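Try it yourself: sequence plus geranylgeranyl diphosphate, in.
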Amino acid sequence: MTQTDFTHWANQQQLHIEQVLTQRLPKAGTAPLRLHDAMRYAVLGGGKRVRPLLVYASGAICNAQPAAMDVAAVAVELIHAYSLVHDDLPCMDNDVMRRGKPTVHVEYDEATALLVGDGLQTLAFELLSGELGIGGKAQLAMLHALAQASGSHGMVGGQAIDLASVGQALSLPELEQMHIRKTGALIRAAITLGRLCGNTLSDEHSAKLDHFAKCIGLAFQVVDDVLDAEASSATLGKTAGKDAANDKPTYVSLMGLKQARQLAQELEADALASLAIFGDKAQRLSQLAQFIVSRSF
Ligand code: GRG
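Structure, out:
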């Protein structure tokens, strides 16, 4: 399949997820108005939607149920959007721009931004625990995977390590442990959720898919560090160079730009190798991995 074909597929899926998110978020004009307006502001009309794309691409390898994948994709994106809203707060990264527009606490206020995060997180689990049309065991596994990836052993734990690492000299393994949790866990969960919406895979196939997920989750963060060091705020849609300015350790600060780019490519190669077992069914996952590593935003 060609690059054009992938771009077309990704654009179609992005339009689709935008529609599903619009439907599943609290309606505009419903009370409490300001909170619901801010929740929609935080989620709609921006972002690459990488995690939903990973849900669909992962589901494609096991003939997953489209309706269940929609809910899984929404749930993961809501958790991601909540993390961005909280991450931008003055008590965390204190950022004023996100996805090319003012952050939620700037556009609304800090208390609203806090509640937006809380509301998005709980909505994710409300939706995922509703009727999905798949077996109860698979649905419970999805809830468990998303909760674990989001919590103190996953994304929130990674964020705690990140906050504690300001001004500290982390080793590469320590940096990796932080990012496996902070960014990698949710990306890995997106792939797990897509898989759980479809036919059960063998242990061998599941392990290969999970290895792919771990590699690509880490590669995503390595590339994020490279882009943050290289790009301008206009290209990124958020404040560039912030980690270095805040004296936070990054792959670029620890290894240098060239080595960090090299690491991302090695992780991509490792990820792609583990997809071989799936043949053509993993075409979209493979293309997404290449997009994640070669992206410029
Ligand atoms: C505050 C609970 C809490 C968690 C924060 C994931 C995270 C933990 C913070 C996000 C801050 C950040 C910029 C992390 C670096 C990598 C990352 C997840 C970037 C944003 O993801 P993209 O590029 O964003 O997928 P879009 O806007 O495209 O969805």
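One thing you can check immediately is this: The chain has a mean pLDDT of 94.
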